[in-house]
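Incident log entry.

Two folding requests arrived from the same account within the same minute. Monitoring flagged them as a possible duplicate submission, but the sequences differ. Recording both here for audit purposes.

Request one:
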Amino acid sequence: MRERLVALARLRALPAAIHVLQKIFTLTIGPILVSAPLRRLRAALDAKTPPSLPLRVAIVAHAYYPDLIPEILRCRSFLPTDTPVFITVPPDRLAFAEDAARGALGVTLIGAPNRGRDIAPFLAVLQSGVLDPYDVVLKLHTKRSPHLLDGETRRKLLFDALCGSRRGVAETLRAFLDPQVGMAGWRPSFRSSRSYWMDNKSRIESLAERMAVPGPVMLGFFEGSMFWVRPTALAPLRHLALKADDFEPEAGQVDGTLHHALERLFTISAWAGEFRVCDLQGRLLQGSAAPDARRTSQRAIASQVE
C-alpha cells in the first residue's frame, strides 16, 4: 500500500514539475526565441514561398487587444496571400481594430460582445457558417494574460510555433491531408494531467453529454486555446448552439467559467467525431481518462491507424 501511495504521489508531482520547468523556460529562454534578431534569422533560413497544398485555409482570431493585430497579420504572411482573416473584436474597440488592420487585404472585422473571452466569439463565427468552406482554420487570440509574468512571451511562442515560418506551416498542413486529423497544436501547450480538470470537470461532463459524447470524457487540451482545427471536427461542439448570453459576464475569472470548460471541450469534440488530435508535426496526442475509457480510446485510435 505504501509503495502505491508513493507511486501515486510521484505521478501527481510529475505534471507540476513539468509545469514549473516550462515556466522557467518561458521566462528565461522564451524571450530570446521570440526576439527580433532570432525571428529575422529564422526568416532568412525559411522557405521562400508559402505552402501550396490542396487545402482551403483561414485564420480566425479574437483581438481584445487591437494593437496586437499586426502580430496576427504577421502569421498570415506565412500562408498563401489570399488566406482570409476573420477577426472578432469587442464593439467598443472596433475603431482601434480598423486602424490596426488598415490597408490589409482579406481581413474581416466582426463585432463580438466582451463575454467568453476568445471562446464565445470563435463559436459565434463557427456557428454562423462562415468557416464551412474551409478545410483547416487557425485559431488565435491576442492573449496577454496580465496576471502572469510570462503572458506576453507565451503568446509570442504560441504564434511562432503555430504559424511562424513557411516550413513549419507546410509541415502542419500536410498532416491535415489525412482526413482523420481533426486538430493540431503545440505539444508543450497540451495538457492531459487530471489536475488540469481544475474546477471544470462536472460542467465539462454535462456539456459532453449534451454533445452526445459516448462514455467518460478524456482530458487533453491545448492550454491557451490556440490551434489548427478542421471545422467539421467541431460539429458536436457546434451542436450546443451556445450564445454570448450563455457565458458569464467578464470579471477577470481565472477558472470555473463556461469558457474555461469549453477550452477543454475542443479536443473532446474532435475525439467524439473520431478525429485524431496531433502535434504540429502530425504525431498523435492523447488525453487521460478513467482506465476503462482509456483502453477503449486506445483501441479506437489503433483501429484508425491500422
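Request two (distinct sequence, not a duplicate):
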Amino acid sequence: MAIRIWAMCFLLAAGISAVQAQQQNSPTADQQTTQSATSGEKGGTPPNKSSPEQSAQQSQARSSEEVREAIRKFLAIGAPPNPQAAKRGQAIFVSTCGFCHGPNATGGAQGPNLVRSTVVLHDQGTGKDIGPVVHNGRPGKGMPSFPNFTDDQIHDIAQFLLGRTQAAANRMDYTIQNIVTGDPRAGQTYFQAHCSSCHSPAGDLARIAKKYDPVSLEGRFLYPGNSNRPGMGPPPDPRAEKHVTVTLPSGGVYSGVLVHIDDFSVALRDSSGAYRSWIYNDVKGILVEVHDPLAQHLVLLHQYSNADMHNLLAYLETLK
C-alpha cells in the first residue's frame, strides 16, 4: 500500500512538473508582448502592451488552471459539472433534501452522507441512477418520494452532487475565499510591536502585497523558509538559511551554513565551500549551536490569535 501511494504521488508530481516545464519553454507574456511589438513596428499596428504585474498574474492564472487540469486527469474524476446546472441543483437540494442530508450533502439529522453514496458515485451526474430513488423514495428508510420532480430537475441535482463528490476526491481544487478580513490599523500596531526589529515596510517588505496574493503572503509569515529538496523548486533565500557553529573539545571552532543535523550527527558548509561533518559518538563533548534567523516566526506561530493573523495580513495587504 505504501509503495502504491508513493508511486501515485510520484506520477502526480511528474505530471505537474511536465506542465511547469512546458510553461517555462513556451514564450512568456512579456516575450509575446515584445514579439507583438516587433510585428506592430513592421506592420504599422500598435500592440496592446500589458504591465509586468499583469503579465505575471496572467501567467500564474494559466499555470494554476493547467495544474488543476493535470490533477483532474491523474485522479480520473472526469469532467466537472455544468456550473449553471449545479447551481440550480444546489438550490433544489438545499430546500428539499438539505434537512435530512445536510446542505452540502454530507449528512444531516436523519439522512446519510450522499458524497459517499455508491448510487451517487455511479450516477456520475447523469441523474439516471438517482432519479428512481428521488421519484420513488425509500419508505423503509424514512425517505419520502418526490414524484413531481422533472427530469431536468433530477439532472440538476445530479450535477450538484457530482460537484460535491469531485470536491471530496480532489482537495487540490478547493477554492479559498477572501481571507483579508482583519483590521489593518490593529495589524500595523502588532507589526510594530513584534516584527519591526527585523522587517521594514519601506525596506524588505516594500510593495510586498504586489508580489504575492493574500494566501501566499499569509503563508510566508506563518510558515517562512523553503522546504524544497535540492534541485526541486527555487533555491532557498540566503537570508533564511540556518547557520551553525561547532566547537570541538580540542578548541577548534567551525562555522557555516547548516546542511544537516539530527540526533546523531551535524554537517555544515563553510565560507570556502568545504563540507564538514561530525558524528557525536566519535567526538565526545562536541558543542553545536544553531542560529536560525526565522526562529522568531516559530515563536509567534504559537502566540498568534485568530485576530492577530487576520489583522497582520490586512496590514501587509496595504503595502502596495
